[in-house]
Design brief:
Layout: H1 18-31, E1 43-44, H2 48-63, H3 75-78, E2 92-93, H4 95-110, H5 113-121
Antiparallel strand pairs: 1-2
Length: 130
């Protein structure tokens, strides 16, 4: 998918002004009376078929050499599986539940040695296949 700017997007070309421009835009929104949308509370949880599709895709990427054995980590996704997380695929979960899962997955991966070595390798500009 190719990204393209919409008329509502704001672009800052000078990196030195990025934070200043973002802060000014946030202040303008607040002054205009912006109110954050209410978090969604009835999001259908994916079931076993969605988890199986994600795991199959991760496996196939590994087999094709596009991902290392460390990359297709799906343990946090298992929490959405009917037998390990919500009881069935028709269960509705909240946006906060999904955000908590995302945070848990991120922190779990940050604790792994291979994740830390890959993040340190980012300075080279090349992907690390560990």
């Amino acid at each position: 998918m190719r990204w393209s700017a919409s008329p509502a997007d704001r672009i800052t070309l000078n990196r030195e002004r990025l934070l200043l421009d973002a802060r000014a835009h946030a202040a303008a929104l607040a002054n205009a009376g912006y109110i954050a949308p209410q978090p969604r509370t009835a999001i259908p949880a994916p079931g076993a078929s969605a988890l199986a599709a994600l795991q199959t895709g991760a496996f196939l990427m590994g087999e094709a050499g596009y991902a290392s054995e460390h990359e297709p980590e799906s343990r946090p996704l298992d929490r959405l599986h009917p037998r390990r997380g919500p009881r069935h695929s028709r269960l509705l979960v909240s946006e906060q539940y999904l955000l908590d899962l995302e945070r848990e997955a991120f922190l779990s991966l940050c604790g792994e040695r291979k994740t830390r070595s890959a993040s340190l390798h980012l300075k080279t500009g090349k992907p690390l296949r560990n």
